[in-house]
Design a protein that fits this description.
Layout: H1 6-22, H2 28-35, H3 40-52, E1 56-58, E2 66-68, E3 101-110, E4 124-128, H4 130-133, E5 141-147, E6 161-165, E7 174-179, E8 182-190, E9 196-199, E10 214-224
Parallel strand pairs: 3-5
Antiparallel strand pairs: 1-2, 3-4, 5-6, 6-10, 7-8, 7-10, 8-9
């Protein structure tokens, strides 16, 4: 193996220590935060250098995933009950800052009973990697923070941030909808009379049928969840 720089040695030691303490490898963001890098580019640059020098290796069959090289100097011992895990492919995708999408967050949306419409100006911006999130780069995206539990059986919890694409939606889509002047997050369905209505993914909440109007503001594409 080729000689490492002091920074590369420190990164490799951090990876070992993180694995020893947590039993999983750190993400690019973990390494960025640990060493105070201004961007993820610096992290991926050091990882590529460590790969060239033989300290980490690509995981066969997993694009952009790495493992520590299997030698006594480079690889920590895993607990007997758990096999060594590679860096997760999605966390080590070579993401340039210019690749990230900046999505406006327009406040909260009720995932319960309909609520008043939020103000029209974004309160924050969310940066995501479109490939990891599974969204189209040219899509018209915006985000809303979920308030309530009416969509829990669809995997959408109170406090999640849902990313939506502007559009009219189709029956079966989870949508942000304006119903009789109030906004809510529900599944869009058609009744036997071919009229649209909204259905919760929680049996504690009733179906919502418009008295006068129902319009779709956006279709849910993915979500971001903050871990406790």
């Amino acid at each position: 193996m080729k000689d490492m720089t002091e920074r590369q040695k420190a990164i490799l030691e951090y990876i070992r220590r993180h694995f020893s303490e947590n039993h999983y490898w750190p993400s690019i963001r973990d390494i960025q935060g640990e060493f105070g890098f201004k961007s993820t580019n610096a992290v991926t640059g050091h990882l590529r250098a460590l790969e060239r020098k033989g300290n980490i290796a690509r995981v066969p069959g997993q694009a952009r995933a790495y493992r520590l090289a299997c030698d006594s100097a480079a690889a920590p011992e895993a607990p007997a009950s758990r096999a060594p895990l590679p860096f997760a492919p999605e966390t080590l995708r070579d993401v340039e800052e210019s690749d990230l999408l900046s999505i406006p967050v327009y406040g909260a949306i009720a995932a319960g009973f309909p609520d008043g419409v939020e103000p029209g100006e974004p309160i924050a911006h969310l940066q995501i990697d479109p490939e990891t999130a599974g969204v189209r780069r040219n899509a018209r995206l915006f985000a809303l923070r979920v308030r309530g539990d009416s969509m829990i059986e669809a995997g959408i919890n109170d406090g999640d941030t849902v990313i939506l694409e502007k559009g009219e939606g189709r029956p079966g889509d989870i949508v942000a909808a304006l119903i009789d002047g109030e906004v809510t997050l529900k599944r869009l369905l058609l009744g036997r009379d071919r009229k649209a209505y909204l259905k919760a993914e929680n049996p504690a909440y009733p179906d919502l049928k418009p008295a006068s109007s129902l319009s779709v503001q956006g279709i849910a594409r993915t979500l971001v969840r903050r871990l406790a």
